[in-house]
Amino acid sequence: MPRVIPRAQHNLSRKQISRGALKVLYGLKDAGFRGCLVGGAVRDLLLGRRPKDFDIATDATPEEVRKLFRNCRLIGRRFRLAHVVFGPEIVEVATFRGTGDGEENGDRHVVDGRILRDNVWGSIEEDALRRDFRVNALYYDIADFSVLDYVGGIEDLEDRRLRLIGDPATRYHEDPVRMLRAARLAAKLGFTIDPAASAPFHDLGHLLEEAPSARLFDECQKMFLAGYSLSSFRMLEQCELLRHLFPVTVRALAHDASGVLRDLIERGLAGTDARIAEGRPVTPAFLFAVLLWGEVATLAAQLHADGVAQSLAWQRAAHRVMTEQGKRVAIPRRFGYAIEEIWALQPRFAERTRKRVFRLMAHPRFRAAYDFLLLRSGESDAVRESGEWWTQAQALSPEQLSESLAPKTAASPGDPPTTARRRRHRGGRRGKGSAAKPDPQA
Ligand code: ATP
Ligand code: MG
Q1: Domains in the chain, start-ordered, CATH in brackets?
Q2: 55 C-alpha to center of ligand 1: Å?
Q3: Arithmetic mean of pLDDT, 115-131
Q4: Which residue has its alpha carbon closest to ligand 1 atom 5?
């Protein structure tokens, strides 16, 4: 029997549920089916947070759901679901999953303890037991607005703790991505991971290396593009899971005695979180460029020192790093191009002739590459000064900027835009360390 929390004893109100989700819940109920809000939405609402999406569980099969709603399509093979579309909102409707012990009408495909397909229908109790964490297995029943707790989820919400349902090792073998979900949800909610749920990370983390790399990319997006990327990153490191997802990053951090790379990564992630908080757009490309930078920069420098021309060295380094990373997390090609461009533009910030400055500024990836340059300011004085130079350069009008630049000779990396002009007037000769104060009026 579940613990039933009647409407009068919880704070989850219909006003907080999206219009689309309410329509689906009532549509199911009116057709004689059960309709429950479930998962992250119930958890977040009980915690007083705004849910990311509203998932619904029902005893109607996907086909029955499709017949009920005109705006419905069935998706997924591994996990068959109905999507009901209301303008920009997509409400995900899942049929209660069963244990598969009896003679149910459905199919589940398990290989070496891993669940590859799960389309066995069952009761709500069974559905609760198949979910990952106890706090994710709470149901809000549209029939009487009560919250149903079959597994002790309320207790964990009160303790701010993530506990797995069932035996942790078995549940991670069934689906290794649950380890990442533990780290992600702990970071997002500020919960602790129950020691029994985190204990297997060390021995079972490697299972993530066999998880489909496309699914890991999706999971990375949820971890790093939802407003809590810095805490997710730290949690992944603490849980020893980062090395299975970003071996390249972990290797580079191991050689980062000065902490410069860590600083770049943490500032990059914090910046991404801040942008999301302000409602500004973010791209996975920038994020991956940040996470993989340490290795690509080292490799490019090595190749260049071995006599490979600079642009070729960058190309090769980028290719190697992306190939290695791609084995773990499948980065879609369009983002791959963007990442490589952000990197490849970095050495071009040192070129200060008029033609090259204007060409770089007109590059479609200039803005991202410039933001990236600013993150690198801890690397050396030259990089920091370069960042300042380009900040100044953008503050000038095109005419002012053009005026201040030498047509052919490159200025020294540390010079603000205005000094180049002064020097040109002096005959283009310059001595080291003679940088004049930038003049915003120039
Ligand atoms: P978020 O707030 O990020 O959406 P969520 O918990 O709602 O977090 P979803 O991916 O939306 O995450 O999943 C919805 C629900 O489906 C979860 O709360 C959980 O009950 C169940 N679920 C999702 N992934 C798994 C999994 N790998 N194994 C078991 N149950 C899962
Ligand atoms: Mg959700």
Answers
A1: 3-159 (3.30.460.10), 246-426 (1.10.3090.10)
A2: 9
A3: 91
A4: 40
User: Model's pTM, two decimal places?
Assistant: 0.89
Q: In whole numbers, what is the pLDDT of the chain averaged over residues?
A: 91
Residue nearest to atom 1 of ligand 1 (CA): 40
Report pLDDT digits (tens) over 331-350.
999 999 999 999 999 999 99
Contact 402, 354 (CB under 8 A): yes
The response to whether residue 211 sits with its C-beta less than 6 Å from ligand 1 reads: no
10 Cα–ligand 1 center, Å: 22
Give the residue among 333, 328, 296, 332 at the shortest CA–CA distance from 315. Answer: 296
pLDDT digits (tens, 9 = 90+) for 153-174: 999 999 999 999 999 999 999 9
Q: Is 92 in the pocket of ligand 1 (CB under 6 A)?
A: no
Q: Which of 92-101, 204-213, 417-426 has the lowest mean pLDDT?
A: 417-426
Ligand sitting nearest the alpha carbon of 132: 1
Positive or negative, the CA dihedral 12, 18, 177, 278 is negative
pLDDT over 70 at 422, yes or no: no
How many residues comprise the chain?
A: 442
